[in-house]
Amino acid sequence: MKESVNPYDGEKLFQFKELNNSELEEKIKASHECFLDWKKTSYEERSKLMFKAAEELRNNKRKYAEIITKEMGKPISQSIAEVEKCAWACEYYAENAEGQLQDEMIKTDAETSFVKYQPLGVILAVMPWNYPFWQVFRFAAPNLMAGNVGILKHASNVMKSAEMIQEVFENAGFPKGCFQNLVLSSDKIKAVIENDLVMAVTLTGSKPAGLL
Q1: pLDDT tens-digit profile of 169-179?
Q2: Binning pLDDT at 50, 70 and 90, where does residue 94 land?
Q3: Which of 11, 22, 75 is nearest to 191 (CA)?
Q4: Residue 189 in contact with residue 212, Cβ under 8 Å?
Q5: Which of 95, 88, 93, 86 is nearest to 168 (CA)?
Q6: Any idea what the Cα angle at residue 79 is, between residues 77 and 84, rounded to 5°?
Q7: pLDDT tens digits, residue range 60-71?
Q8: Residue 42 backbone dihedrals phi, psi, to 5 degrees
Q9: In terms of pTM, does the model score above 0.85?
Q10: Gap between the Cα atoms of 64 and 46, Å rounded
């Protein structure tokens, strides 16, 4: 079991059952199956959902901020500001991703050359505890707008924040499997990275995290 503990008074807040191997495999497969449809959606469709995610964050910022404060201890004013910044990120990529990902013509020796951006598939994010919402949304918003799907292994002491982030996207109407939180120990991440359906990894963390 994973536990969230209030760093201020040591109170045990939440418990989470770690995924077993078969459950983990099912979640990765579900992400991949979602990707096969999600990559075909238009920027307009993705943008509408991302704006709804921003709306979900703004309308419930106090609820989400209280989870941040309870799990990692920052003042509630800073937690609210963090949730608001996440909403801004969703709006920014909803407005700008299509333009940022357009084909780019370049000069080479060939008759015609260009850079083309295409979705990769299931992307794993390994994220730290200190900005439990922001560090995830700065990955998730552009990743989803690019046509990828995301799976998250968050720091063990902020698993409720991770659960709430998945809730944000689900409440906004994103397809099931588009963004999934994985309740895992760090020693299981190697197997996730080696899974053939996981196409890339983004990591923010300390040196020990990078050595896993």
Answers
A1: 999 999 999 99
A2: very high
A3: 22
A4: yes
A5: 86
A6: 95
A7: 999 999 999 999
A8: -85, 160
A9: yes
A10: 23
